[in-house]
Design brief:
This protein has helices at residues 16-23, 76-88, 108-121, 133-141, 155-173, 181-195, 203-211, 245-250, 286-291, 309-319, 358-361, 389-402, and strands at residues 2-8, 29-32, 41-45, 48-52, 65-68, 97-99, 215-219, 259-265, 268-270, 303-305, 307-308, 323-327, 337-346, 349-351, 365-372, 406-410, 418-420. The protein contains twelve helices and 17 strands. The mean pLDDT is 94. The chain has a nine-stranded mixed beta sheet with strand order 6-5-2-7-1-8-12-16-17, with helices on both faces. Strands 11, 13, 14 and 15 form a four-stranded mixed beta sheet that branches. It is 30% helix and 19% strand. It is globular and about 65 Å long. By secondary structure, the chain is of the alpha/beta class. It folds into three domains: 2-6 and 19-101 and 203-260, Adenylosuccinate Synthetase, subunit A, domain 1 (Adenylosuccinate Synthetase, Chain A, domain 1), CATH 3.40.440; 108-195, Adenylosuccinate Synthetase, subunit A, domain 2 (Orthogonal Bundle), CATH 1.10.300; 262-420, Adenylosuccinate Synthetase, Chain A, domain 3 (Alpha-Beta Complex). α3 runs parallel beside α5.
Length: 421
């Protein structure tokens, strides 16, 4: 038996979708255990190019079963669209994609409130995706949530009636328009009828799989430093993102997690508000132009910066990472010099990430090391030895700082553009 957790070592957007798709060929189960459709994973393979938000990225492996755990919050319209897209593309998810009845449902009022809260905060907005993620998790922990299991009885109608009485008062107080009970009820009953064939209690599935020595590939949403507790609070997501969340979110006992793959981008990006010590503010610089990307979920331009080894090292320690997958190394090709942050100073004192809060992190001074770049195009490299010496040194520098080996190196967006070590 092996249970492999794939987690992002930065602020998301590290390329976890490609890594899960790459590793899924040897997995019996691929599973999402946290977050919602605020996460976007891009997968490029023989079926085409896909931007996936809820279905596990490893679903393309034909012998793999996909699981969406109770720790995931679900926008049914988004999930239905993804299922239809995958079936139309020939992936065929019917009979091999299961949704936990314990998962909470994102309702229309969650998305409305998400936007109204952000507008009310003004300059203090946290930069949410406005997908309703924070409000649905707030309802979950305050006993106001609606789960798929509620749809199997009259509980859904009763809970919806109560929630609309509460939520409409808040929505109208903030300047929004009240929702109508019958419209919401009928729409979500239709959603449930389409998703009902996929809803199945996962406890037995997981436990039987563990007993049968099956291989599980666990797919994290977001990144380590968007974690509610260990991230740059309040500029974080609403769920726990580190591997321990798989225990509550899927029913995997912590002791069964055998490997943790930390997906690490060769530079740093972040979407939304919050501190980012290595951010490049010169928008005309060559590095900024290379590193700038468009987020798969929101379409927003990602903030770009140099590699931050303090962040990576902290993520490795926090998640018990056993190996790294370095992505997008090819993007660095053509830069004469590279800046790498090796640590922080605050008020002339050396500090670690854990020593400061989000507001302190915004004030730290990065300690940079300048390393030589390389001119060669490495997109066709398929072995470590084929990389230029400076690229190999860059990888080794990351290994030395993190204290764990880099087992895979991404040199392009395609599945096959991956070097195994």
């Amino acid at each position: 038996m092996s249970v492999i957790a794939v987690v992002g070592s930065q602020w998301g957007d590290e390329g976890k979708g490609k890594v899960v798709d790459f590793l899924a060929g040897k997995a019996d189960y691929v599973a999402r255990f946290n977050g919602g459709n605020n996460a976007g994973h891009t997968v490029i393979n023989e079926f085409g190019t896909f931007k996936i938000h809820l279905v596990p990225s490893g679903i393309f492996a034909k012998n793999t079963v996909g699981l969406i755990g109770g720790g995931v919050v679900i926008d049914p319209a988004v999930l239905i669209e993804e299922i239809e897209m995958l079936n139309k593309a020939g992936v065929g998810v019917d009979g091999r994609l299961w949704i936990s009845p314990r998962s909470h449902v994102i309702m229309p009022y969650h998305k409305i409130l998400d936007g109204l809260y952000e507008e009310a905060k003004g300059a203090g907005a946290t930069g949410t995706t406005r997908r309703g993620i924070g409000p649905v998790f707030a309802d979950k922990v305050s006993y106001n949530g609606i789960r798929w299991s509620d749809f199997a009885s009259d509980a859904f109608e009763d809970r919806l009636q109560t929630q609309l009485e509460i939520k409409n008062k808040i929505i109208t107080a903030l300047g929004g328009e009240a929702l109508k009970y019958a419209e919401v009820r009928d729409t979500y009953r239709q959603h449930y009828s389409k998703l009902k064939p996929y809803i199945k209690e996962l406890f037995t599935v997981v436990q039987d799989g563990l007993k049968a020595d099956k291989t599980f590939l666990l797919e994290q949403a977001m990144g380590t430093f968007l974690d509610t507790d260990w991230g740059t609070y309040p500029f974080v997501t609403a769920s726990t993102t580190i591997p321990s969340a798989a225990s509550a979110g899927l029913g995997i006992p912590p002791r069964n997690i055998t490997n943790v793959v930390g997906v690490t981008k060769a530079y740093t990006t972040r979407v939304g508000a919050g501190p980012m010590p290595t951010e490049i503010h010169d928008t005309e610089s060559e590095a900024y132009k290379r590193f700038g990307e468009v987020a798969a979920t929101t379409g927003r331009i990602r903030r770009a910066g140099w590699l931050d080894l303090e962040i990576v090292k902290t993520a490795v320690q926090l998640s018990g990472t056993t190996e790294l997958c370095l992505t997008k190394l090819d993007v660095l090709s053509g830069l004469d010099e590279l800046q790498v942050c090796t640590g922080y100073k605050l008020n002339s004192e050396a500090v670690r990430y854990a020593d400061v809060d989000a507001y302190g992190l915004d004030k730290v001074e990065c300690i940079y090391q300048t390393v030589p770049g390389w001119e060669e195009d490495i997109r066709k490299a398929r072995s470590f030895e084929e990389l230029p010496v400076n690229a190999r040194n860059y990888v080794k520098m990351i290994e030395d700082a993190a204290g764990v080996p880099v087992k895979w190196i991404g040199v392009g967006p395609e599945r096959e553009a991956t070097i195994r070590r």
